[in-house]
Model the fold of this input.
Amino acid sequence: MADFLGMMKQAAQLQSRMQAMQEELGNVEVEGISGGGLVRVRMTAKMQVKTVKIDQSLMKADECEILEDLLVSAHNDAQRKAEAAMQQKMQALTGGLGLPPGLGLG
Done:
């Protein structure tokens, strides 16, 4: 019975930490870059895009397709960085709880 109560206490701690982590992830921002810095996308670690910056040199009608590709690339770069930040937070959160691997929290 004591093991069960201990597990329930750990679960409650984990839930509390998860809520705090979700709030933190909204404050962590990453920047995806493409075209050598011509296009930049900032997003939170919760995948919410905050800003998009486009160098003026790409603002030409005949550059539209290049610009579209660079936007996709910058967004994907930011998304990879946001996922890495989320993974890092998750490892810090669950590292001290002694949870079994593969619990599916990441």
